[in-house]
Design goal:
The protein is α/β, with parallel strands linked by helices. The chain contains 8 helices and 6 strands. Strands 1, 2, 3, 4, 5 and 6 form a 6-stranded mixed sheet that branches. Helix 2 crosses helix 5, helix 2 crosses helix 7 and helix 7 packs antiparallel against helix 8. The N and C termini lie far apart (about 35 Å).
């Protein structure tokens, strides 16, 4: 109940890569893109502690796994716990035509209990991620985050620029540095105000 949520609010949360249930090469980037956008949305919440994606990648390398996205749920929970998280946000994405559905759960890593579960659907990824961030904030006791701005305002309003950015960050994490540079430069060419 409420005591569990308050206890969770004092620990770090890891936002894991979302499972892509669509298996469409055009939307495969959403697995990491939604993770990154959600982390950006939640990071604006004052006093909410989050584990960085970089830290998650470091732990993956330390454990000898190939990538964050290749982990099953048990392995992902272990990586999040080793990275210092008390809870993890996990979920899945399904895309059918222009419609997208994102399911997310907040899991307590010590007990394995699902503390909150939510689902959003629509066609605008940025709006869906903003809705998820609000619901996750509420579920962990940070519902009053009036100063949180929409993800598109904080990063880029261009989904194509965000896709290239997400792929560039993935290339960088996997030490494909030339590809990372090219993808990130393409993202900035589309949106020169893209700060990340």
């Amino acid at each position: 109940g409420r005591r569990q949520v308050v206890k969770l609010a004092t620990r770090a949360i890891a936002v894991m890569a979302f499972d892509d249930l669509t298996e469409d090469p055009e939307s495969a980037w959403l697995s990491k893109g939604v993770q990154s956008m959600l982390l950006t949305g939640l990071a604006q919440t004052r006093d909410l502690r989050l584990v960085s994606t970089q830290r998650l990648h470091e732990v993956v390398r330390e454990t000898g796994s190939s990538s964050l996205e290749s982990l099953d749920r048990a392995q992902a929970s272990d990586v999040a716990r080793r990275a210092g998280a008390g809870a993890a946000v996990v979920g899945s994405i399904v895309k059918a035509g222009p419609s997208i559905r994102i399911d997310a759960q907040v899991e307590d890593l010590s007990s394995g209990r699902v503390l909150a579960a939510t689902s959003v659907s629509g066609t605008d990824v940025f709006t869906l991620v903003d809705q998820l961030a609000v619901r996750i904030r509420d579920s962990v006791g940070f519902g009053d985050a009036g100063d949180a701005r929409p993800v598109a305002e904080v990063s880029s309003a261009s989904l194509e620029a965000y896709r290239l950015y997400s792929q560039g960050v993935d290339a960088y994490a996997n030490l494909r540095l030339d590809a990372a540079r090219d993808l990130l430069l393409q993202a900035v060419a589309i949106d020169p105000t893209f700060a990340e």
